[in-house]
Amino acid sequence: MSAPPGPVSPAVMREVLGHFVSGIVVVTAAGRSGPVGFTCQSFASLSLEPPLVTFAPARTSTTWPRIRDAGTFCINVLAADHQELSAGFARSGVDKFAGVPWRPGPSGAPVLDGVSAWIDCTLWNEYDGGDHTIAVGRVLDLGADPARLPLLYYRGRYGVTADPPVTGP
Fold first, then answer.
1. d(Cα 27, Cα 156) in Å, to the nearest integer?
2. Distance from C-alpha of 120 to C-alpha of 117, rounded to nearest angstrom
3. Per-residue pLDDT for 130 more than 80?
4. Residue 131 phi, psi dihedral angles, 5° rounding
5. Burial of 81 (0-12, 13-18, 19+ CB in 10 A)
6. Which letter, b or e, does each residue of 120-151 get, where b requires 16 or more Cβ atoms within 10 Å of its Cβ?
7. CB 24 within 8 Å of CB 157
8. Which of 99, 130, 139, 153 has its CA 20 to 30 Å from the CA of residue 167?
9. Which residue has the higher pLDDT, 90 or 4?
């Protein structure tokens, strides 16, 4: 019987899992003192029956508790030209909605202008995910613009054109 593998460092985990292409979303809600939102890379469809999606906010997030309190939220699938929105909603301590056009979705949560798709949800459940919380939303309504390509993230950069690392001769 072989010994279990050694511990995996966060740096190695990040580097290896960076080989998986993901989309970028902004999770928004109508908070008590105005709209709130944050950028999230860990989003996926979870179930068709019932219709569920999942994402994983960091436990250190100061925005997720405000979205949780709202009880409903919108997943905004960013379009290819939304790199600035991705960066803006990833910052802390600023008005993330300053100059960002949006409209209220069916739940009242902001739907950002020009997104590839939006998914309006109610919080269905939460689970422990280590240094993240695994949030599951029940889909209430959704829509998409097939003409808008999604913003992709690969190996620490936007898009899938990241150059492979240079190896020795």
1. 20
2. 10
3. yes
4. -85, 10
5. exposed
6. bbebbeeeeeeebbbbbbbbbebeeeeebebb
7. no
8. 153
9. 90
What is the structure's pLDDT at 143?
98
Bridge-based pairing state of the strands 22-23 and 152-154: antiparallel
95-112: pLDDT as tens digits: 999 999 999 999 999 999
Question: Tokens standing for 131?
Answer: 């240094």
Mean pLDDT of the chain: 92
How buried is 163 (Cβ within 10 angstroms: 0-12 exposed, 13-18 middle, 19+ buried)?
exposed
CA gap 166, 168 in Å, rounded: 7
How wide is the angle at C-alpha 33 spanned by C-alphas 28 and 37, nearest 5°? 20
Output the six-digit token pair for 157: 């950069």
